[in-house]
Amino acid sequence: MRANYRMQRLYVQADLLPEQPLETNAEQFNYLANVLRLADEAELLLFNGRDGEWRARLAFPTRKKILLTPVEQTRPQPAHPDLVFLFAPLKVGRMDYLIQKAVEMGAGTLQPVMTQHVQGKITSLERLQANAVEAAEQCGILAIPEMRSPQKLKTLLETWPQDRHIVFCDEDSATDNPLPALQSLKTSRLALLVGPEGGFSEEERWLLRSLPFVTAIPLGPRILRADTAAVAALAVLQATAGDWN
User: What predicted TM-score, i.e. pTM, was given to this entire model?
Assistant: First the structure.
């Protein structure tokens, strides 16, 4: 069932049960009452990443309180997306974009990876999670990605589960076409690794290429910025070996 894009969507943390009202927090109250200016008896869609999507009715029991009452489930909860997105942190504005697009493109787990040439840093996992939630609200997504703590690339690879294949974007690939490498993959348990603006170091590239559970792909004849490369790689991966196929 496709998402209803005509109704406002709101992520909540509480369980969603029919005719069981839940009270908004201060931020949600401000958004619904002062930004959207919703009136008493207005309807919107609620989701929590567990119980599917619900049509809910809004009520103002007092001037400073909003209750949201789930009325009926409009979509069941789908399986959590399996794709793991590994990314080197970028500067704040570009990283916000990166997180939003990764969620839109079907990433189920977001893992910051610290590389030798990384230029950005993670100052707040809560900020990244908020970006992920916002992307889910706007794009009809019901599953909220898991946000993991940053890890150094070498440490990550040393403890990586070898039944999940990593695809990494390598600007030094001998070809411009990523399709043959992706079409040859024997598993649907995948992770995508996108490096920093400065690219991977030679040591990192050698390490990645030496591992049996890692495949390098190119992204065409042009050099792409890291956030652009992420969107391009996610699209070609999903279309060839992921949930678009």
Answer: 0.91
